[in-house]
Amino acid sequence: EKLGVEPEEEAGRDEEEDAAKAMDRAEAGEAGCSRDAPVPEEPGGVPWLVPEGGSSSRVIVHVDLDCFYAQVEMISNPELKGKPLGVQQKYLVVTCNYEARKLGVKKLMTVRDAKEKCPQLVLVNGEDLTRYREMSYKVTELLEEFSPVVERLGFDENFVDLTEMVEKRRQQLQSGELSALTVWGHVYNDQYVNLHDILHVRLLIGSQIAAEMREAMYNQLGLTGCAGVASNKLLAKLVSGVFKPNQQTVLLPESSQVLIQSLNHVKEMPGIGYKTTKRLEALGIRSVHDLQTFSSKILEKELGISVAQRIQKLSFGEDNSPVTPSGPPQSFSEEDSFKKCSSEVEAKNKIEELLASLLNRVCQDGRKPHTIRLIIRRYSPENHCSRESRQCPIPSHVIQKLGTGNYDVMTPMVDILMKLFRNMVNVKMPFHLTLLSVCLCNLKALTTAKKGTIDYYLTPSLSTTSHSGKRSFKMKDTHVED
DNA sequence: TGGGGTTAT
DNA sequence: ATAACCC
């Protein structure tokens, strides 16, 4: 059995520092303390650097579960443990465990290629996300017990802002405890830890909390994962992936340039996606260094000031975006893709299936959706990714019957969805769809907001602006007769 | 390429 | 309503 968490190495090892690291610290204006120098006994008495334009320094952890869907499947069926396992959606292996990776299976490989590479590969169907979603929220809730500021990224990643928690622990350090402080996990770039540097101390405490988080995930949920600790989300995310699987890494500020320069291409920078990469390449920008040194003015003209300034900061490892608590989901959706759907009856059947699952989910959540949306993808040989959608408000009498099981809420909602469908698709002409998706959003808590109370004025549907006809967001909903 | 999510415009 | 980003 794998243990959840072990310290991979300790702070202040006996290795000689190399010249580059010594120079990093010289540039940062540090004293260059040796391990034998006395460690300050008073935690608050150390001068410290404030990076990133005066904003106070943060401690962020990025937690990234190992091959999450495969782990959930191995928990559901322990007989799968030890075997090469892939999780299949349609004809893709969307993820696989490490036994499978050792045998050459990669994420998003087609089933055909994966079986060719690895004939012993065991496949399980992962098109129903229910169990993954439930486990995903258990992880987020566990992390929220450490600190309430947890931001989800997909089903298998979370950011936690540890700044406050770290400060509390640091101030509670007893005399002598500071000099006994150790790192949990790896230190990126094998950088020397300086306990006289308050930024190092805070990040070390962050690494301890990260280890406690991973230990709790393993003991309470049976899940392993990686963690990265750094001073912002970008760096935390980049450093969490340095030692995989089931390991953690802390980034000290002096090594942040080494980390971002380790990226081989701007497309590896989180926040720079497919489209922006293409536009950057058209400007001759390929490496992180290219982006760092490219003219800001020209970049702003090409990409717009917002994107240009944001990604150029990213290229220097700067990211002031806060960890935004995700809270409950903003939307619920279910989709199904297929080779061909070309009749209205066929579409209606698929839509009914999607809606039935959604109603179960939304019922469990407790909140009520006020908007419904239908999304389609039309067959086209070239432009593959493009989707079209229509949405409309859910009639209030339908919303009210949502929680109460005995009324039929399917029929009126399917009627609405089919009207949205016919608004997008001319059913009198031949059509070829490859995806249908239904989304319930604009979720509202079922508050009994009485007139004159705070709740009344905080409820958008009730407050004065809703009577003035200025709610432009509503005007884009397509009008569907009830 | 799947089955999800988010925010910005 | 779409387009970009994330997994």
In short:
The protein is of the alpha+beta class and about 475 residues long.
Structure description:
This protein is 37% helix and 17% strand. It has helices at 19-27, 68-76, 98-102, 111-117, 130-146, 163-171, 198-221, 233-240, 256-261, 274-282, 288-293, 296-303, 305-315, 344-365, 396-400, 410-424, 454-458, 472-475, and strands at residues 60-65, 85-89, 92-96, 109-110, 122-125, 150-153, 157-161, 186-187, 225-230, 248-250, 331-341, 368-378, 388-393, 433-444. Residues 1-36, 41-54 and 451-476 have low confidence and may be disordered. It binds a DNA duplex (9 and 7 nucleotides) through residues 68, 89-92, 94, 108-110, 126-129, 132-133, 152-157, 270-276, 306-307, 326, 329-331, 333-337, 373, 384, 386-391, 435, 437, 476, 478. GO terms for molecular function: damaged DNA binding; DNA-directed DNA polymerase activity; metal ion binding.
What layout of secondary structure does this protein have?
Blueprint: H1 19-27, E1 60-65, H2 68-76, E2 85-89, E3 92-96, H3 98-102, E4 109-110, H4 111-117, E5 122-125, H5 130-146, E6 150-153, E7 157-161, H6 163-171, E8 186-187, H7 198-221, E9 225-230, H8 233-240, E10 248-250, H9 256-261, H10 274-282, H11 288-293, H12 296-303, H13 305-315, E11 331-341, H14 344-365, E12 368-378, E13 388-393, H15 396-400, H16 410-424, E14 433-444, H17 454-458, H18 472-475
Parallel strand pairs: 2-5, 8-10, 9-10
Antiparallel strand pairs: 1-7, 1-9, 2-3, 3-4, 6-7, 11-14, 12-13, 12-14
Helix pairs in contact: 5-7, 6-7, 12-13, 14-16
This protein binds a DNA duplex (9 and 7 nucleotides) through strand 4, helix 10, strand 11 and strand 13.
